[in-house]
Amino acid sequence: MDNIYDNNAADQAGLDEQDELESSDDSGSEEEEEESWIECFCRSKGNEFYCEVDRDFIEDDFNLTGLQGEVQKYRKTLDVILDNNEDSEDNDDSDSSDTQENSDATVKLYGLIHARYILTTSGMREMKTKMELDMFGHCPRVGCRGQGLLPLGLANEWGRGSVVLFCGICEDIYMSPSRRHLNVDGAAFGPTFAHLFLLQYPEMRRGDWKESKFYKKFAAWNENKGK
Amino acid sequence: MDANKKQEQIEIDGTPKVLHQGHSPWIITFLRQPENDFFCLIDKEFLKDTFNQTDLRTTIPNFNRAMEEILNEKNSNDKKAEEQEINIASLEATAIEVYSMIHARYLLSAEGLSAMRSKYFDQIFGRCPRTLCDRQPLLPCGDSCTYGVSKVSLYCSRCNDVYRPTLKRHRHTDGAAFGPSFPHIFLVQYPDCVPFNKPV
């Protein structure tokens, strides 16, 4: 079993309680033209939990059903995400006051698409890679012995709360130690992902789960059910 | 007040403490280090009292030498120990062990509990990471009374569970410096620290 006190990638990314609150650079950076908006967003500080959604997934309108009503200027925002807006960079309509609103709308749209993407096979695979790299941290509970956490949102609607971290052993939710993650909306992950992930990859839950009090309670209840 | 005694005021445990000249530099250096945030300042009289050192003399090697280092007082009676050459690193480690063991005993006294209370309210020990505990302040506790068995963990009185410290620098503190009963004795002493709302 890994030593839970070892430095992990999450610690090295500077996830320390004393980190000052930094605003994440999430609006598409025009300086680096090679990086796409999605790449730039996922690599900026505070967005470590996000994975890069496949372009094919976003381009398929079926996957975006119902999202038209979530943001204003839907098409324009989608173009920003897919980097289709090179022609309209010098657009006179956009001014500086709009930029922050556009940025918030872009993050929101990307987050909602992301919530759907991580429920697919490829999305789960990417999140599994992240979990193996300890990007989500470890359960702080001593009894869980360093079980990897999974991001979870308590609601499907945007603006209801920030992302929390779910532990597969104690089945409890924890706040991220880094203050940067308070800005990440829970709806970008949704309440389903963590549980579906553990059904898909039961090996990611360390063997101690059967020793947990919840499993034992469930086993006892199951046994008494027939009587 | 003796005019010869220099008084230096420093902040330890969140409250200003007046130190007389000759107060041990070892203790001040030890408590100033950021990884020793959880420790509190032990009264000199408590450290010197042999009743509080029960069982430590026999179980910890080079105990006397370590006590001399901690108290900054040479014990001229013990000539045998003076003759032995001790590695500085191992002396430092022994001194930390001795301080930790006496610290665990000090925490059971009224002064120790009071010092920890001010740390508790300053949230030096951190807050519960569990979402539903609503940032309840934590209390340090150890898995065992024996030194070197386990590191310190933090107890949440709301969810009644123990967590490991968030900050890496706190993870090297030994659990025996607090003991398994400290949080419970603390809550008996200060019932106002017991949370009203139990977790969901």
Automatic annotation (TrEMBL), chain A:
Keyword annotations of the record: Kinase, Transferase
Family: Belongs to the casein kinase 2 subunit beta family.
A GO cellular component annotation in the UniProt record: cytoplasm
InterPro entries tied to this protein: Casein_kin_II_reg-sub_N (IPR016149), Casein_kinase_II_beta-like (IPR035991), Casein_kinase_II_reg-sub (IPR000704)
Species name: Streblomastix strix
Annotated Acidic residues bias: 14-36
Record-level Gene Ontology MF annotations: kinase activity; protein kinase regulator activity
Keyword tRNA processing found: no
Native organism taxonomy: Eukaryota, Metamonada, Preaxostyla, Oxymonadida, Streblomastigidae
PANTHER family, sorted: CASEIN KINASE II SUBUNIT BETA
Protein name: Casein kinase II subunit beta
TrEMBL record, chain B:
A molecular function (GO) term: protein kinase regulator activity
InterPro entries reported for this sequence: Casein_kin_II_reg-sub_N (IPR016149), Casein_kinase_II_beta-like (IPR035991), Casein_kinase_II_reg-sub (IPR000704)
GO CC terms of this entry: cytoplasm; protein kinase CK2 complex
SMART domains xrefs: CK_II_beta
Assembly and interaction partners: Tetramer of two alpha and two beta subunits.
Family: Belongs to the casein kinase 2 subunit beta family.
Protein's recorded name: Casein kinase II subunit beta
Organism: Streblomastix strix
Lineage: Eukaryota, Metamonada, Preaxostyla, Oxymonadida, Streblomastigidae
